[in-house]
Amino acid sequence: MLKKFVVTILLAVTFVIAGGQKNQAEAWWGLVVDCNEWISLREYPSTEAYRLTTIPLHEWVWINGNAGNGFYRAEYAGMRGYVLQAYIKYIKD
């Protein structure tokens, strides 16, 4: 009983500390914005990297965290790669 109570308290405290805000370490859905037609899903976090595919404007992308160098780790259409942060908008639930 005490163990269940402690776990419940820890979960509640974690939620309060997080404040319901997006944490860069967690995964979230992002919307492709501010581009002409599409953005590139890249093989590694660089504009010089091979383009795995294109992601159309206003399409949803699963973001798995910050990869640094201005890129997010992302998944789209079953492929994993990197997208430029400047073109991804976090939409709060």
Structure description:
- The structure is a single chain.
- Strand 2 (38-42) and strand 3 (51-56) form a beta hairpin.
- The strands form two sheets. A five-stranded antiparallel beta sheet has the order 6-5-4-1-7, with no helix packed on it.
- Helices cover 18% and strands 43% of the residues.
- The relative contact order is 0.22.
- The model is unreliable at 3-23 (pLDDT under 50).
- The protein has one helix spanning 2-18; strands at residues 28-32, 38-42, 51-56, 60-68, 71-76, 79-84, 88-90.
- It has 93 residues and is an alpha+beta fold.
- The chain contains one helix and seven strands.
The share of residues in helices is 10-25%
> How many E-type strands?
7
Largest sheet: 5 strands, antiparallel
Strands in their spatial order, largest beta sheet: 6-5-4-1-7
Distance between termini? 34 Å
Mean pLDDT: 82
Strand residue content: 35-45%
What gyration radius follows from the Cα positions, in whole Å? 17 Å
Question: Which key phrases capture this entry?
Answer:
7 strands, alpha+beta, disordered N terminus, single chain, five-stranded antiparallel sheet, 93 residues, two-stranded antiparallel ribbon
Question: Topology of this structure?
Answer:
Elements: H1 2-18, E1 28-32, E2 38-42, E3 51-56, E4 60-68, E5 71-76, E6 79-84, E7 88-90
